[in-house]
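subagent[fold] <- orchestrator: predict structure for attached chain, return tokens only, no commentary.
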Amino acid sequence: MKLLADSHVLVWWLDDPGKLSAGARKAIADPRNDVLVSSASVWELGLKIARGKLQMPDHFLTVLREDGFSDLAVTNNHAETSIHLPPIHGDPFDRMLIAQVLEEGLVLVTRDQLIQQYEVPLLRA
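subagent[fold] -> orchestrator:
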């Protein structure tokens, strides 16, 4: 299974994996699954760190990679798909994740209630 971790999932994975559902922890830890980190999430978390709204380990992306997470770049196709999504969610970072899930055939790991209103494959975080 190919999973895309929402930003809060990345924070919880690094800070307190017990906040994740048992199913999400198991799926993320399963080496048969490809777990992806969107560059949109790295950007979002970096902005929150820079504003002092979030503390993360230095080089958190390196830590995630060591834990088996892989990078997913944002493409023009992802951006174009995000433009055409229904206006359920106003957060541009979450809209990008939804677009990436649709374009790449992924399962989104999230607990975001608004995202759950889109017709995308989800795994509850």
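orchestrator: received. Logging for downstream: The longest strand covers residues 34-38. The domain at 2-119 is CATH 3.40.50.1010 (Rossmann fold).
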